[in-house]
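Q: Could you write out the predicted structure for this multi-component system? I'm mainly interested in how the pieces pack against one another.
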Amino acid sequence: MGSITLQDVRKAFGPHVVIPGANLQIEDGSFVVFVGASGCGKTTLLRMIAGLEDVTSGRIMIDGANVVDVPPARRGLSMVFQSYALYPHMSVRGNIAFGLKMAGLPRPEIDRKVDAAAAILNLTSYLDRKPRELSGGQRQRVAIGRAIVREPKAFLFDEPLSNLDAALRVQMRQEVTRLQRQLKTTAIYVTHDQVEAMTMADRIVVLNAGSIEQYGTPLELYERPANLFVAGFIGSPRMNMIERETEQHRGAATIGVRPEHMTVSRDGDGWSGTVRAAEHLGSDTFLYVDTPEIGSITVRCVGELGLGEGDSVRLRPDPTRIHRFDKSGTAIR
Amino acid sequence: MARRVAVAHTVTATVAAWIVGFVIFFPILWMAITSFKTELEAFNTPPSFLLFQWTTENYATVQERSNYLHHAPNSIIIAGGSTLVAMVIAIPAAWSMAFVPSRRTRDILLWILSTKMMPAVGVLVPIYLIFRDLALLDSRIGLLCILCLSNLPIVVWMLFTYFKEIPKDILEASRMDGATIGRELVYVLTPMAVPGIASTILLNVILAWNEAFWTLNLSTSEAAPLTVFIASYSSPEGLFWAKLSAASTLAIAPILVLGWFTQRQLVRGLTFGAVK
Ligand SMILES: Nc1ncnc2c1ncn2[C@@H]1O[C@H](COP(=O)(O)OP(=O)(O)OP(=O)(O)O)[C@@H](O)[C@H]1O
Ligand SMILES: [Mg+2]
């Protein structure tokens, strides 16, 4: 129970249009990630679903009912904030229990649910502490505990892991995913980290300047980007965009080749170029190659090739993995 | 080496702090000392600091000539009451301005403050006439109202600044947790704003306790608070310095005690947000 549908949702702050019109269908139980550059409207979209921000026009449906006029308290959603937003004057127990208390549950039931949530999140020994006595990761877990204990129709996460260090982030990422799979509750997760997006999502929404560029599974986005924006946004290092005419173009205005979809050799056929810089990561090598034909190209090779600055190389794209885009930037299929 | 420099710094800072503190406190100390002198001694030049004949006769005279216990309750009612009413009005006002601002909120705040920029004496005549016509002259309720109104701008401003410091996220989290606006105020906002609210109350009580313009002009006997009690010893000839000092010491004693016991809270409130 927790399907969410956006119909022509528009948002403007005064004259400044942030979301020009979003349509989206989120299925019950799925994990959907909103990604996009900073300032593209991810938080705004999430806050409109939460009810913390009014929609300028359009409809937001939760389980088929339009909720645009329903206050956040009665939408049955729970949210995890980037800043954690714990109640500083309450203990961990008080924080997790607050929503249940507001719902008027009897005391023994509240205690039972709080204990259960704390056990899942390894918070049992911290229940009597105040938030300021916790580490960042523990605070984040309390915020998640507060969200899950209410058994909401959906979880909303706004960059919940961005204040954690890299190692903890990887661990929490897995915990959040595992928790969501276990609870089977719809989740919407905002991030600008595409690794988080690719690893956590059932489906990804790529946002650009408030518009939804593509909505699909991580592999769909990687293998069949709908347009130049998505092609450039998903994948690291970025896809090479080649605008100069080559024999690979076959009528496209732009072709894209991912750095990992090219083979490098010292001679043979293919685009010729000179290595401008090489980054050796051990497992991978990134080559930045200047070619007279098509400009600067990034190549990612597996393993160590023994190539260095100034070497001349030949680049051959995998012909089955060339992406073609028309003048407007839309993918040609 | 670095350690010696650090110690020297601490010592300098401590000495400087004590000097500044002493200078600020000196007038009150001087007043208290003077209240134990004879009138003649108080008038001496150069004045003697500690080596004089200590006497409590001024306190006896003051209590004989006027009734401290008549004025003190008036002060308590007027200062306490005006603070209470001001808080009841200012908390919701500051709340709405801090958390649901509109395009005009800034202007309203400035406009509220603008009444404080006018010298009170400028409106003495109209206020006096209004009080006369409403039969509020020399009444506690009248003084309570006027002090409440004159301190309201500062109260609203102080509370507004404190509330501004409270992260909006936390209030929104409580909304997501199913709290209605009323419960959000009671369970989340108020407990978080306690230091700010407390120091606002304290400051307002002190301001109202010492307010001497309206209380002197609008009351004579029945409702007269301690400021009137003090003023009755300041004669144009200025011959009653010791008695004036005794009266003043008596008048500020309660507020001094209150301030002493709440200084931690007061300082925390006044620097709230400065060190985050
Ligand atoms: N209250 C507001 N008033 C006016 N403009 C706003 C307001 N809130 C957000 N905006 C604007 O809306 C746009 C989208 O903001 P939003 O916070 O949704 O971005 P975001 O995608 O979450 O970015 P980030 O990744 O940096 O968090 C920004 O250009 C921002 O300036
Ligand atoms: Mg954001």
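A: Regarding packing and overall arrangement: Residues 65-270 of chain B form a domain with the MetI-like fold fold (CATH 1.10.3720.10).
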